[in-house]
Write a structure and sequence with these properties.
heterodimer, A: 4 strands, globular, B: alpha/beta, two-stranded parallel ribbon
Chain lengths: 214, 145
């Protein structure tokens, strides 16, 4: 019996068209950098002793278990790997496990050059991470596009697509620099309050990516 | 080690079999007419003295006056190599595809099509490979800004 074969080429062509459209839309709405995540750096007066204590417990827990999601996009990943290995040993900070799934990670390390074609995937992964989540932009390319800032295919700074907590400069940064970035992030985490998360969550619903506290 | 063949002597032998195919030749390379490229390439692959059974790479170059496609050929049995070139105008950038002779040209011709805008006539699946659908212009052309 003659069976009509499915036309995969037509299907693939439609997929390509849809992908191209999505990338063009992403570029159109990523013309300006998102504000960095600094809302909780200057918290107001603590409302009472109870909340402060909960804050301390929460932040202590988060501080010592920021599990990273390794997105090694380019050569910076070669410096991220020894950071996790025995010599530099990021396990000292309670972040030994590089998770392969964004659902299990708290910290997104963008290590390397981000292209517009990859930006869709990275944004999706970031959106899939559970709150609270943090982002470290590692290296010149992740910070500003680096050498490729004016290129036709490279995102000029990942803060066009996802909000960033800590920038680690270098090309690529040494593992010590990345560890220092982690320590800065830990300081930042310690200044966060549980109280803020409700406010932040509400604000993020109203204006995505723009969550400045009043 | 592979031995790089001298372009002029190869050009003479090509000209014996396919007259008017060679545009220019020097020590390092041979420039072929685009419309006779497939004949020349099949001749180089099938002739026992040459046996160019391996295509190292296909490259596109923008020289502002014209576009050029460079083919690096190697014979694995005879361990010699040759560089072929084909030129086409910027207004009508068309070069015959060599996928029917060497399958390895498939992705590289698609890359050149995507980034330099050269159309490879006879390619089985000539579509974008690096840039997304809807991207305007050819980024590796020297007038692209």
């Amino acid at each position: 019996m003659e069976v009509e074969k499915p036309r995969f080429d037509l299907f693939l062509e439609e997929m390509d068209q849809a992908e191209g459209k999505e990338i063009e839309e992403l570029i159109a709405r990523s013309q300006h950098p998102l504000p960095d995540q600094v809302e909780w750096l200057e918290p107001g007066p603590r409302p009472n002793l109870l909340v402060t204590t909960i804050d301390k417990v929460f932040n202590w827990g988060r501080h010592y278990s920021t599990w990273p999601f390794g997105s090694g996009l380019a050569c910076c990943a070669m410096e991220m790997v020894p950071t996790a290995a025995s010599r530099f040993d990021q396990a000292r900070f309670g972040m030994e496990i590089f998770r392969a799934s964004p659902r299990q990670a708290d910290l997104l390390i963008v290590a390397g050059t981000l292209t517009w074609k990859m930006a869709r995937a990275l944004k999706l992964l970031y959106d899939q991470m559970a709150e609270p989540k943090w982002v470290v932009a590692m290296g010149a390319c992740a910070i500003s596009g680096g050498t490729f800032a004016h290129s036709y295919s490279v995102v000029p700074g990942v803060n066009r697509v996802i909000p960033v907590d800590v920038y680690v400069p270098g090309c690529p940064p040494r593992p010590e620099a990345l560890l220092y970035g982690f320590m800065q992030l830990h300081q930042k985490i310690e200044r966060r309050s549980v109280r803020d998360e409700f406010i932040l969550a509400d604000l993020r619903k109203i204006v995505p990516g723009r969550s400045k506290r009043n | 080690m592979t031995k790089a063949l001298v372009g002029q002597s190869i050009a003479e032998q090509i000209a014996k079999h396919i007259p008017q195919a060679v545009v220019e030749a020097n020590d390092a390379w041979v420039v072929i007419k685009p419309d006779l490229l497939l004949q020349v390439v099949q001749f180089l692959k099938a002739t026992p003295g040459f046996d160019f059974n391996y295509l190292n790479c296909v490259t596109g170059v923008d020289y502002l006056d014209y576009l050029e496609v460079v083919y690096h050929l190697t014979s694995l049995e005879r361990t010699h190599s040759l560089v072929l070139k084909v030129r086409c105008s910027r207004e009508k950038p068309e070069v015959p595809s060599v996928v029917s002779v060497w399958c390895g040209a498939d992705l590289q011709e698609r890359e050149i099509f995507d980034l330099l805008g050269i159309t490879f006539v006879g390619h089985p699946n000539l579509k974008r490979i690096f840039m997304w659908e809807g991207f305007k212009g050819y980024p590796l052309r020297r007038d692209y800004l």
